[in-house]
Amino acid sequence: MATIIPVASFDCVVFGATGDLTTRKLLPALYYRYKDGQIPGTSRIIGASRSEMSVEAFRERARDALKRFVPARDLDEDKLAAFLDHLDYVAVDGAGDDGWEDLAAKLAERPDQVRPYYLATSPDLYGSICRNLSAHGLIGDKSRVVLEKPIGKDLKSARAINDAVGEVFPEEQIFRIDHYLGKETVQNLLALRFANTIFERLWTADVIDHVQITVGETVGVEGRAGYYDTSGALRDMVQNHLLQLLCLMAMESPLTLDANSVRDEKLKVLRALKPITPHDVQAVTVRGQYAAGAVDGKPVQGYRADLGGETESRTETFVALKLEVQSWRWAGVPFYIRTGKRLPQKLSEIVVQFRASPFSIFPAESFGREPNRLVIRLQPEEGIKLEVMTKDPGPGGMRLRPTNLDISFEETFKQRYPDAYERLLMDVVRGNATLFMRRDEVEVAWAWADSLLKAWADRPEPPRAYPAGSWGPTAAIALIERDGRTWHEEMH
Ligand code: BG6
Questions:
Q1: What is the mean pLDDT of residues 187-197?
Q2: Residue (of 150, 109, 151, 121) closest to 9 by Cα position
Q3: 107 with 138: CB under 8 angstroms?
Q4: Do residues 232 and 452 lie in contact, with contact meaning Cβ atoms separated by under 8 Å?
Q5: Which of 52, 166, 303, 363 has the most CB atoms in a 10 Å sphere around its CB?
Q6: Cα–chain-centroid distance for residue 296?
């Protein structure tokens, strides 16, 4: 069990305290950190939302949320009761004037606390919440603001949000969340690449044939159809999570692990991403939308039925892309990425396919001479597998077969993997922004996404239908097979 170092005492104000993110993610994450002794007893978590509610009522809501979203084996009644004692509540109108004096009075009780303001609200409110915080004198050296995605729906709206928040908070105090960066296995990419000489030396176009990044989900749009239909998979997943994974795979070694060094390197990758033009769009992109099908053996309806029978929606629930990073290191190495809802498996993985050996000394009948492959499993069944060729044992001659050097993190570390929000919330209190996105990163990623969205918008055809429970439209298979390659799962 790793040593847990307590963070400084804090008052975390959560705007959007009755919303889904707070209930599902933030309260459970804070509970775990409290239970493990990382949160000092003088800290407070102050819920803020428009609803009038007593502190007791807020604590009861929180208790229900924790009972739903924390497994029973981790819920210790005494710890739970003690945790709930640290919860407080103020009714505040993020868009208007009500409640701010009450919040200010509460915060004034403990002026020396670190003060994270977590904006788990609609992004439309970010500007007015920040203006109100400033107008009521609530921003000081120990304040930080945490912004949830989506930060805009294109470059223009992202800039407007960044401008509004930037008017009152300096960039070092702005923490833009991409929860993928808080996942243990995603941070492990940094360890894998920069703490092991064997991989880093091979991380070049000379040795790597291509890279695949897959983030599959079995869920549909659940209760978020309203948001999702104005977003789609490119904005919801690719512009942030998948591009961040690509950055961690493709970036050069940062000078140090400090926030700006890491973010400088990621930014260079984003800048080197080749824009997808209307001319290329047919060849290197596939958009899909799930139709009725079956997931985990259960029949499920299609996306348009999930929207309540809306028949015209052209929103994509699946994207596959062939990307190019225009740099010396990566020239000529495609990055194939795909993500979608209602796929057969919840699975996030990165596959590094090495080039075939240039020449074989083995006789043709030794078959199975497959190039090496590194498979990094981000979730679930987290681990790293390196496929190497070995001699098939026995006197049958020199026959080869692929075998795995296989590390399962579950078996190796035998401990619970903390949720991404646990790490990220503690980093906010510590003031460590390494795993958060800087303004320029978000905006360069949007500029790239905008050109693709525009190219799609100019095309007449809707996204291709795929049956729920499949790996997307067949065109996504063709996208990679045209290049003589295959998506990883097809090889199982
Ligand atoms: C969110 C998206 O950012 O990430 C969701 O808005 C998606 O649509 C989710 O389901 C996936 O996250 P995870 O951690 O379950 O892989």
A1: 94
A2: 109
A3: yes
A4: no
A5: 303
A6: 24
Between 1-5, 84-88, 203-207, the lowest mean confidence (pLDDT) is in: 1-5
> In angstroms, rounded to a whole number, what is the distance separating the alpha carbons of residues 56 and 234?
41
- With a 6 Å cutoff on the Cβ, whether 11 touches ligand 1 is no
**What percent of the chain has pLDDT above 90?**
85
Query: Which stretches within 70-143 are classed as H helix?
Result: 77-84, 100-108, 126-135
Of 57-61, 227-231, 363-367, the range with the lowest mean pLDDT is: 363-367
H/E segment holding residue 121: none
d(CA 187, CA 169): 27
Cβ(314)–Cβ(456) under 8 Å?
no
| 384 sits in which H/E element | strand 383-391
Write down the pLDDT at residue 492: 38
> Is the CB–ligand 1 distance for residue 349 below 6 Å?
no
The pLDDT of residue 490? 45
Neighbours of 163 (CB within 10 A): 11
Distance 471 CA to ligand 1 centre (A): 18
Cβ-based neighbours of 328, under 8 Å, separated by 6 or more: none
Mean of the pLDDT values across residues 269-297?
96
Q: What structural domains and CATH numbers belong to the chain? A: 11-148 (3.40.50.720), 181-246+284-418+462-481 (3.30.360.10)
User: Structure tokens of 451?
Assistant: 């050109």
Ligand 1 atom 4: residue of nearest CA: 237
Our answer on whether the CB atom of 148 is closer than 6 Å to any ligand 1 atom is: no
Reduced 3-state DSSP string for 299-323: EECCHHHHCCCCCCCCCCCEEEEEE
Question: Using an 8 Å Cβ cutoff, are 251 and 268 in contact?
Answer: yes
Q: Provide the 10 A C-beta neighbour count for residue 98.
A: 13
Closest CA to 435 of 421, 446, 452: 421
User: Is residue 86 among the annotated active site residues?
Assistant: no
Q: What average pLDDT does range 396-408 have in this prediction?
A: 88
In percent, the amount of the chain with pLDDT more than 70 equals: 98
Q: Token pair of 161, please?
A: 């949000």
| Dihedral over Cα of 439, 445, 447, 449: its sign | negative
Regarding the beta carbon of 382 and ligand 1, being less than 6 Å apart is answered no
Give the C-alpha separation, 66 to 289, whole Å. Answer: 34
In sequence order, which residues have a C-beta less than 8 Å from that of residue 252 and are 6 or more positions away? 265, 268, 329
Confidence of residue 362 (pLDDT cuts 50, 70, 90): confident
